[in-house]
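Thread: quick sanity check before group meeting

JM: Hey all, I'm pulling together slides for Thursday and realized we never actually wrote out the predicted structure for the chain we discussed last week. Dropping the sequence here so it's in one place. If anyone has concerns about the input, flag it before I start.
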Amino acid sequence: MFIGEYGHNLDEKGRLAIPVKFRAALNKGAVVTRGLDNCLFLYTKTEWAKLAEKLAALPFSQSNSRAFARLMLAGAMEVEIDKQGRVVLPEYLREFAGLKKNVVLAGLYSRAEIWDEEKWKVYKTQTESNSNDIAEKMAELGV
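JM (edit): ok, ran it. Output follows.
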């Protein structure tokens, strides 16, 4: 389970330190892929397998299904945590998310998101300012 918000730095080789609280869940490997809202999604291999099965089962005759599966599956890369607790984020994923030096890892239960720090601040400010509207819509969904 991933919860919390952690600031870390990317080094010149694209390595990112994983928060200590996340490492145990990822010690058997992980998958990082393009996410939504211009961030990256980081999954345990178990959670990734569940999602990949659902994506593979989408009807390929529908263009939105194909596009979403391509976004998530073709962009995915297995990553391993090194002895210092870091993963190497591939350059194409760093470019996709616009990651610079300062990044934020946000825990979202079954996945972690990796954000450029400035983009995260903008997103979070917008979301917080709309929190009442968002809460009402979530209530409609039974949350």
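AS: nice. The chain has one domain: 2-116. The chain has a mean pLDDT of 94.
JM: adding both to the slides.
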